[in-house]
Amino acid sequence: MKIAVVAANGKAGKLITNEAVERGLDVTAIVRSENKTKATQVIQKDLFDLTKEDIAEFDVIIDAFGQPDQDKLDQHSKSLALLSDLVSHSDQRLLIIGGAGSLFVDEAHTMRLVDSPDFPEMFKKTALAQTKTLNEIQERNDVLWTFISPAPDFQVDGERTGEYQISDDEVIGTSVSYADYAIAMVDEAIEGNHIQKRFAVFSK
């Protein structure tokens, strides 16, 4: 299995890349600038310049792209559309780092986290942009996608416990570390248990 991580220098991308390398997988980091991961195979290219030929050899492409700039949130949709088109009608799988805002807070699935009264206003635009990408990828029957949401409290410096629990669409916990999320992402890359599905990762 050959894995490529897009935006591998990012906070989540770096941990996912390193996790995959440490497990002995064949990993290529796709980065815009100098590689800062443990991957020895590198494609130095902007995500928006990638071509089918660039990623043709990979079985799994992990989309770790994130855009914190509030004026460029449309890049979430644009980048996902591009990557989806590159793997369309192929056996390549596309794993996507999603957001927590689209998770439901009730069993009846009547309220998403982003719509709940206590959701922080400062994160709402980003959460809605990431929710939009989930809606868009769910319409892509031509792509073998998996959308992986973290728990609401996604902890950059959280402990790597080596354990996690998952849900399909509901909030079942409060937090998860980037390190444990990376484990879940690499597990999914290897096992492929959630093709054309979304799941969420929480601390155990």
UniProtKB/TrEMBL annotation:
It holds the Pfam family NAD_binding_10. One of its GO terms (molecular function) is oxidoreductase activity, acting on the CH-NH group of donors, NAD or NADP as acceptor. It comes from Staphylococcus gallinarum. It comes from the Bacteria. This is NAD(P)-dependent oxidoreductase. Residues 8-187 form the NAD(P)-binding domain. The lineage of its organism: Bacteria, Bacillati, Bacillota, Bacilli, Bacillales.
